[in-house]
Write a structure and sequence with these properties.
With 623 residues, the protein is mostly helical. The chain contains 33 helices and two strands. The chain is 69% helix and 1% strand.
């Protein structure tokens, strides 16, 4: 005869190695199989209990599935309890054995013992399939309309699973759910709210059926708010927050796109929002659901402002979870209530300094949504400050957001160029080619800022060469407008206190480009740009009318530089050097024509093309 369950547990705990444990389990499984074959009825429930323990340890236990059915069919409660427990642990909803147990469950649903009915309901709630649901739904409905709150709340939860598996039965049983709201048991009320929420989510048309219940739901919620201290339902000084949350979720679904229902619940939502304590998590959970309800229904404008202010208070909470929820919800609200959310802009910006990276990321997304032509200067400053401290994985999407914001809301050409250059100097390695190209385009079209931009980029490259995109934009600008470096650049109009830029010698310009090319951070693309830049400077600085002291010497220095790379192992670089050397050997007029400035790009046409490409990408994503 096999041992008792407690003795098996002792033996397993006494094993010092995995091999010893396997030996004990193998021996006991053999004894259990023998007992099953001999149809040892008195010890069947003990053997199945031991099999559950073996299953929890991760060993095979499929050979005991049929014994579960025999225990469920037993007339005694202890054996039924073990049988249903084993059924829920050893089987899943895909097991074929479940078809054999449906009749036993149907009989137990009508059992006079409520605990047996509870076991049967629990098994259907965990394992119920579509076929089982079609057979048992009428029995579950009878349990749901009984007098025992213990059975009624379990039956309501089982009905949720059945309707999810058999949604075509919703229309037939939706009206029968209404009677549950008259029960005085809070457990039954919570289960009925969840059942109605599930029905409306599965079949939104049923919201009109339940809309007539809004006054009853409002009355229930008002009673909870006015109820005094009740030890049975009190959680942190709040009366049954679980039921309040369930009622608010149901009201949220019933009030959506329904003005009449929304009007009926405006007052109670305002009462919940103003009277709920926020010192404990239970109160915060209720307020969060209240805010979601206000934002989902056709609420009054004053009520929506109150909801956003509650989220603003959440942002000041020390709990990171509450702050994250507030930021996430504000992100959904901002599209409809931009002006109201703007009032909490300072608090949202402070979240960028939070140690938690998830909060910083949510705050950044919200700031991006809040940005418009009026606040772009202030918020862009915060985005650039965050770009300095954020992680490497966050920089590429942030650079794209900055580029889009600058493209939409830039107040002036100078501000746009300053912002983009600052971004390149902070996170140039995280910028893609599109950002580099757009920056070049904006520099090209701002003809009045060519000298200022080139001087600024030259100064930045003289200080550091760590950002690839900054190098590419700077080298391109020096190649196009390098002759402007030889002349001083006064402060821009409207900024008399800003320092200007002094003139730079041609030797300093060529030396900087040589430094860029020799840098260990220079890529093949960077070196190719430097070669092209030097070829253009040979014409820009050799004209003698831009302040060059010795045009011929500059050209000879550039040709000597090309000669160093005429036998380079990089075929692209070698080809460029050889071709440019041959080009510079041509008459000055022909070389000057070939290397003249790039014509300014048409900004409007470029934006239209970009919009068409983005629209095509969106269509591809939809497909």
């Amino acid at each position: 005869m096999s041992i008792k369950l407690r003795d098996l547990i002792r033996q397993v705990r006494a094993c010092k190695t995995a091999q010893d444990e396997r030996a004990v389990i193998t021996k006991e499984c053999a004894l259990i199989r023998t007992a099953f074959k001999e149809n040892n009825v008195p010890y069947r429930h003990r053997n199945v209990a031991k099999l559950l323990f073996i299953h929890m340890l991760g060993y095979p236990s499929h050979f005991g599935q049929m014994e579960c059915l025999k225990l469920i069919a037993s007339p005694t409660f202890p054996e039924k309890r073990i049988g249903y427990l084993a059924l829920m642990l050893l089987l899943d909803s895909k097991s074929e054995v479940l078809t054999l147990v449906t009749n036993s469950i149907k009989n137990d649903l009508a059992h006079p013992n409520p605990y047996v009915v509870g076991l049967a309901l629990a098994s259907v709630g965990n394992l119920g399939t579509g076929d089982m649901g079609r057979i048992l739904i009428s029995d579950v409905d009878k349990c749901m309309r009984g007098n025992d709150p213990y059975i009624k709340k379990k039956a309501a939860l089982v009905m949720i699973r059945i309707l999810k598996r058999v949604p075509e039965m919703i229309e037939e049983f939706a009206d029968k759910v209404v009677g549950l709201l008259k029960d005085r048991s809070h457990g039954v009320l919570i289960a009925s709210c969840q059942l109605m929420i599930t029905i409306v989510e599965l079949e939104p048309e049923q919201a009109s059926t339940f809309a007539r219940l809004v006054p009853s739901l409002v009355r229930l919620l008002r009673n909870l708010l006015s109820m005094g201290y009740s030890p049975e339902h009190d959680v942190a000084g709040i009366t049954d927050p679980f039921l309040q949350v369930g009622l608010l979720r149901l009201l949220q679904l019933l009030g959506a796109k329904n003005e009449e229902a929304s009007d009926a619940m405006n007052d109670i939502l305002a009462q919940v929002a103003t009277n709920t304590e926020t010192a404990k998590n239970a109160g915060n959970a209720i307020l969060y659901e209240c805010v979601k309800a206000i934002m989902s229904i056709e609420a009054e404008s004053g009520l929506r402002v109150l909801a956003v202010n509650i989220l603003g208070r959440f942002l000041l909470n020390r709990d990171n979870n509450i702050r994250y929820v507030a930021l996430n919800t504000l992100g959904k609200v901002v599209a409809n209530d931009l002006d109201t959310v703007q009032r909490h802009r300072a608090t949202i910006v402070d979240c960028l300094k939070d140690p938690d990276v998830s909060i910083r990321q949510r705050a950044l997304e919200l700031i991006y949504s809040l940005t418009n032509a009026k606040n772009v200067v202030d918020l862009m400053r915060e985005m650039l400050n965050y770009l300095v401290v954020c992680g490497a994985e966050s920089k590429p999407p942030l650079c794209s957001k900055i580029m889009d914001t600058v493209d939409k809301y830039a107040p002036s050409r100078k501000w746009r160029i300053d912002t983009l250059v600052t971004m390149l100097s902070i996170a140039g390695n995280a910028c893609d080619d599109a950002i580099t190209s757009n920056t070049v385009m904006y520099v090209t079209v701002a003809e009045e800022l060519h000298a200022y931009t080139t001087h600024k980029l030259f100064a930045l490259l003289s200080e550091e060469l760590s950002q690839a995109a900054l190098i590419h934009v700077g080298v391109w600008c020096i190649g196009e407008f390098g002759h402007l470096l030889l002349q001083p650049c006064p402060p821009q109009e409207g900024e008399p206190d800003a320092p200007g830029f002094e003139a730079v010698s041609e030797d300093a310009v060529v030396s900087l480009l040589e430094t860029v090319k020799k840098s260990h951070l220079a890529t093949k693309h960077s070196k190719a740009l430097v070669v092209t830049c030097l070829a253009k400077l040979s014409q820009r600085l050799a004209t003698g009318d831009c302040g060059t002291s010795n045009p011929g010497a500059v050209k000879q220095r550039i040709l000597a530089h090309f000669a160093q790379y005429s036998e380079s192992m990089d075929m692209e670089l070698q080809q460029r050097v050889v071709e440019y050397t041959a080009l510079l050997a041509l008459p000055a007029e022909q070389a000057s024509t070939a290397l003249e400035k790039m014509p300014p790009m048409d900004e409007l046409k470029l934006k239209e093309k970009r919009a068409r490409l983005e629209a095509n990408d969106d269509d591809d994503d939809d497909d």
